[in-house]
Structures are given as structure tokens and as C-alpha cells.
Design brief:
220 residues, four-stranded antiparallel β-sheet, 7 helices, Ubiquitin Conjugating Enzyme, alpha+beta
Length: 220
């Protein structure tokens, strides 16, 4: 399946090639990624490596920038080793559970990421929305992508999911709206379930810790 999908991707990104790394059991995509604007004007080229686990399409590829063009700084959404933060972890996990297509992944996530980096290198802000770091970014994901009304509502929904309490279609939505789940956040709850027990548990712990000083401030 990977080889078939890569042939399609290679038509658009001809400077990329792939090989199978038997020791790590991953496909390794490497080469140059040319970036152009929406009217086809050339912006720049990045040297990249993509590591695609053999569990493809149910996986999240790791993308590494080798050309050292992007500053190695957290504000640029890249690690000191060049590992690129393409999107919120939760969004990527949800995508991997449904199964990705390598052509769509490169087009929608990888290409967009590097185009945004060039845009910022020109002294501008990212063209699209930018996530905050750490727990603030996690909360932002739940509020903006999954339409949770607040961090507190998110926390309650996560707790209900973890203990499987009140999650029937006709039960009240854990967001606190008073509506039945089927008429409120049913799709969002189903997405959250794909994150897995440990991820949901960690989000609960992190959000509670994040909200603690805010709650104390309200009391004071």
C-alpha cells in the first residue's frame, strides 16, 4: 500500500525518494521539497527525511528538516534535532487512527508546514493559526478543533470518557450544555476516544495542573 501511495505522491514531489530500512522496519523518504506560493512562484527548498512506520497507514510519520534553514527554537515548532511539529499531537493521533495517505499527508501537513516556515522567515507571522505551547496548546486544540466551550468543560468531558460515565447518545453531553450527546459533542467525544487511555489521563493531569492557579486566583 505504501509503495502504491508514494508513486502518486512522487508525481507532485519528484525530488523525494524512498527506501525500506529493515533494521528499524520503516520506510525512509528523503530528498528535496521545493516550496512555491499559490501562483507557482518559487520560494525555497528544504532537505527533509520522513520516517514512516510499517504500521502505515495507521501511523504518524516523523519529519526531520536536514537543511538547517529553520531556527532550532521552540517558537518555530521544531526540536533541536530538527524534528518538525506539523500539527497538534492530538490531531495527528486522530488522523492516524483513521489511516493516513502519504500523498495527502505530505501535501496537507508537510508542505504546509514548510511553506509557513518560509513565510515566517520573511519576517511575518505564520499564515495560519498557531498553537500555543505545552498545556495551553492542548487546551487550545480541544477548544478550537473539538469545539469544547472551555478548559473546564474539556476537563469534565475527559474525566467522563475515562470512567465511561454518561456517554450514551441520549445522555447529557459532558460539555455542560444540557443537550443530549447526540445533538452536541458526539463527534468530538468519538475523536477523543481514539487518543487512548494514557493520553486522556495525561491530558486530565496536565489541564488540572494548569487550571489550579487560575482557580486559586478566582477564590482569592
Amino acid at each position: 500500500m505504501f509503495e502504491r501511495d508514494f508513486i502518486i505522491a512522487n508525481e507532485r514531489f519528484p525530488k523525494l525518494k524512498y527506501s525500506w530500512h529493515a533494521k528499524s522496519k520503516m520506510w525512509v523518504i528523503s530528498g528535496e521539497l521545493d516550496i512555491c506560493d499559490t501562483v507557482g512562484v518559487y520560494w525555497g527548498t528544504f532537505q527533509i527525511i520522513m520516517l514512516v512506520p510499517r504500521s502505515y497507514p495507521y501511523c504518524v510519520p516523523i519529519v526531520i528538516e536536514k537543511s538547517q534553514i529553520i531556527p532550532r527554537d521552540i517558537d518555530w515548532h521544531i526540536s533541536p534535532e530538527g524534528i518538525c511539529c506539523l500539527d497538534a499531537d492530538h490531531e495527528l493521533i486522530a488522523m492516524s487512527q483513521k489511516g493516513i495517505n502519504i500523498n495527502d499527508f505530505i501535501t496537507d501537513k508537510v508542505y504546509t508546514y514548510f511553506a509557513n516556515q518560509i513565510y515566517k522567515l520573511q519576517g511575518k507571522q505564520y499564515a495560519g493559526a498557531e498553537y500555543a505551547h505545552h498545556t495551553a496548546g492542548v487546551i487550545q486544540y480541544y477548544v478550537e478543533r473539538l469545539n469544547m466551550p472551555s478548559a473546564e468543560a474539556t476537563l469534565q468531558a475527559l474525566k467522563n470518557i475515562l470512567c465511561k460515565k454518561g456517554l450514551g447518545r441520549n445522555d447529557k453531553c459532558p460539555c455542560g450544555s444540557g443537550l443530549k450527546l447526540k445533538k452536541c459533542h458526539k463527534a468530538s467525544i468519538e475523536t477523543i476516544k481514539t487518543f487512548g487511555f494514557s493520553k486522556v489521563q495525561k491530558d486530565i493531569q496536565d489541564i488540572e495542573k494548569y487550571l489550579l492557579p487560575l482557580r486559586k486566583h478566582k477564590i482569592d
